[in-house]
């Protein structure tokens, strides 16, 4: 039996939702063993949380310099092989950069960095070091999204001609209408979040998904963003028209002021022979629509689905799977890449996906600020 991959974690401490998601995902396929990390900026809190996870306190480090130095002093079969970066956005780049430079594989939350230039630097280092780098665009791990990707690649809906991806939330309403609150949250602070809130946070999921399931690249965009208040420097709503390299067109709609919405992420892809529709809040249903046939509803776990979809399915048909499973599939994809056993294109989002996400953020903001004009993604 092969030894488990030794995993370190930066961030994701006691009160972190994303931390729970990553820890469950890492344990899901018995591929990883969490051995230590830095769970909080306050070392005493980090130690306390490490104790809760029953980790060796010697591997709960005060800072990243200490982590790298001490882990690299361990025998190869004991040291951390990969480190997950779950910190606020502004820390992604310096932490990931330092880890890559010291030979660690990395799993990083999105957005990858706060600027496209930073993302390019990480890409260059990763290529030189030939390490594995996963970016957690979580929803790509859903079995029925992977089924959608396979069906489109196999031509089951024909040539793609219309893409409509929507990601609506309403949570920022609680902050944006209160001057003090919108001025104090890190999500609306460019120093900590980068130049975009809504597009940077959830719009990049939609952009990544559009490219992931279609297999096409967005070539041109035109954006119209909403900031609501003059003193708010960050977008909290936006619509982006997109044009792909092979002439298909589409729209990305993202909002954090869609009152009453929780996590409404929907993906609709239309070809000249049929259409596919999926919604994150009901992730077990993939709808196949054709003009000359009744509506078909595909669900995970059945033998007639693609091998890629089935590999990411852990329960029999009729047993709902969710976001933990989706993230777990991404961690499994990274594990297989580290072990050089990866079988599928798209098994986990790579650094280049994060790089394109950062380019999308900057091009979107630039399109809006230039007066809602078309911008080429290559410029």
UniProtKB/TrEMBL annotation:
Signal peptide: none annotated. Pfam families: GFO_IDH_MocA, GFO_IDH_MocA_C3. Residues 145-276 form the GFO/IDH/MocA-like oxidoreductase domain. Residues 19-137 form the Gfo/Idh/MocA-like oxidoreductase N-terminal domain. GO terms for molecular function: nucleotide binding. This is Gfo/Idh/MocA family oxidoreductase. It comes from Christiangramia lutea.
């Amino acid at each position: 039996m092969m030894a488990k991959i030794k995993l370190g974690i930066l961030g994701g401490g006691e009160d972190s939702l994303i931390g729970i998601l990553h820890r469950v995902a890492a344990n899901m396929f018995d591929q990883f063993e969490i051995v230590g990390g830095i769970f909080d900026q306050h070392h005493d809190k980090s130690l306390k949380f490490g104790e809760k996870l029953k980790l060796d306190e010697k591997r709960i480090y005060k800072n990243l310099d200490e982590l790298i130095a001490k882990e690299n002093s361990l025998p190869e079969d004991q040291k951390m092989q990969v480190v997950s970066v779950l910190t606020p956005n502004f820390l992604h780049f310096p932490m990931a950069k330092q880890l890559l430079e010291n030979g660690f594989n990395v799993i990083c939350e999105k957005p990858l960095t706060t600027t496209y230039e930073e993302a390019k630097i990480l890409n260059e280092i990763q290529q030189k070091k030939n390490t594995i780098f996963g970016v957690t665009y979580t929803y790509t791990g859903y079995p029925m999204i992977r089924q959608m990707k396979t069906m489109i690649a196999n031509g089951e809906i024909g040539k793609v001609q219309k893409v409509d991806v929507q990601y609506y939330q309403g949570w920022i309403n609680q902050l944006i209408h209160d001057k003090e609150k919108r001025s104090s949250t890190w999500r609306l602070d460019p120093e900590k979040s980068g130049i975009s809130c809504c597009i940077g946070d959830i719009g990049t999921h939609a952009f990544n998904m559009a490219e992931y399931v279609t297999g096409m690249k967005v070539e041109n965009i035109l954006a119209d963003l909403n900031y609501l208040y003059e003193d708010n420097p960050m977008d909290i709503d936006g619509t982006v028209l997109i044009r792909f390299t092979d002439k298909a067109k589409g729209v990305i709609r993202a909002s954090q002021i869609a009152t009453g919405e929780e996590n409404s992420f929907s993906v609709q892809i239309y070809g000249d022979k049929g259409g596919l529709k999926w919604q994150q809040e009901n992730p077990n249903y993939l709808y196949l629509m054709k003009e000359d046939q009744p509506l078909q509803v595909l669900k995970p776990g059945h033998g007639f689905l693609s091998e890629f979809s089935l590999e990411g399915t852990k329960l029999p048909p009729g047993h709902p799977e969710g976001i933990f499973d989706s993230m777990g599939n991404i961690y499994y994809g990274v594990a297989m890449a580290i072990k050089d056993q990866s079988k599928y294109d798209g098994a986990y989002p790579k650094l280049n996906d994060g790089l394109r996400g950062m380019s999308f953020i900057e091009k979107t903001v630039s399109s809006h600020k230039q007066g809602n004009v078309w911008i080429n993604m290559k410029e």
